[in-house]
Design goal:
single chain; alpha/beta; 28% strand; three-stranded mixed β-sheet
Length: 227
């Protein structure tokens, strides 16, 4: 039976809670057991055989920096890969996953951050089953580039690589946030609007019909369904 380890790198209680709620919606729908943890959680290394899936959250931290959990999460990712287990990294998790597998040289800071709703181009991939012309929530300053041949780019837009798959395994990163509903999205966008005077200059909103967001839960539910 599938069991997912949800590793939450968010640093503030409200954000930790919103991420957990977003993932839990899909976990509950899939009827899968989940364990939600925050750094530091060294026992995860010793209990790794309990879990089939790993989801890594976004974060206020930069994946290019050294954080308290850097060594722990790097080891956890490498063990999951070594054992052929399944990983989904979201935003910071996408960037950190790339760092753990090929080094910091694949990360960079965007000249202009990407915040708001934007369309992305996707390749045919089982992670994207029944997803068409996705419009997704972006909340990032850092991005991924210069990935080696071990990585297949499976989603992108004009700003950044939006998704990759590692070595044909069930190891994926997505730059966007499929886990947040409209309430969570408004919270994060309002926080950025209040705290960054440059927000009006980089905010994008291609959202015309909220119904177009209804399919976005499939990014997570497809991943949770991998056996």
């Amino acid at each position: 039976m599938n069991k997912v380890l949800v590793y939450n790198c968010m640093e503030y209680p409200e954000k930790i809670s919103l991420f957990r709620q977003g993932i839990h919606r899909e976990v509950a729908e899939a009827g899968i057991e989940a364990e939600y943890v925050e750094p530091l959680f060294p026992e995860a290394i010793f209990r790794i055989d309990e879990f089939t899936h790993l989801i890594i959250s976004g974060s206020e931290a930069s994946a290019m920096d050294e954080s308290l959990w850097t060594a722990e999460l790097t080891r956890l990712i490498r063990l999951f890969v070594e054992k052929g287990k399944k990983i989904l990294g979201i935003c910071y998790g996408h960037q950190f996953l790339a760092r753990a597998l090929c080094g910091k040289n694949c990360l960079y800071k965007l000249p202009v951050p990407e915040y708001g709703y934007s369309g992305i181009s996707i390749k045919e991939n089982k992670l994207f089953k029944n997803i068409h012309n996705p419009l997704v929530l972006q909340l990032h300053y850092d991005a991924v580039r210069n990935l080696p041949e071990d990585f297949e780019i499976i989603a992108e837009n004009k700003t950044a690589i939006q998704g990759f798959q590692y070595k044909g395994m069930d190891v994926f990163g997505v730059q966007f946030h499929p886990e947040f509903d409209q309430t969570a999205a408004r919270y994060f966008l309002d926080e950025a609007r209040k705290n960054d005077p440059e927000f009006p200059a980089f905010y994008r909103n291609e959202l015309e019909d909220e119904k177009s967001l209804e399919q976005n839960g499939l990014f997570i539910s497809n991943f949770l369904g991998f056996r």
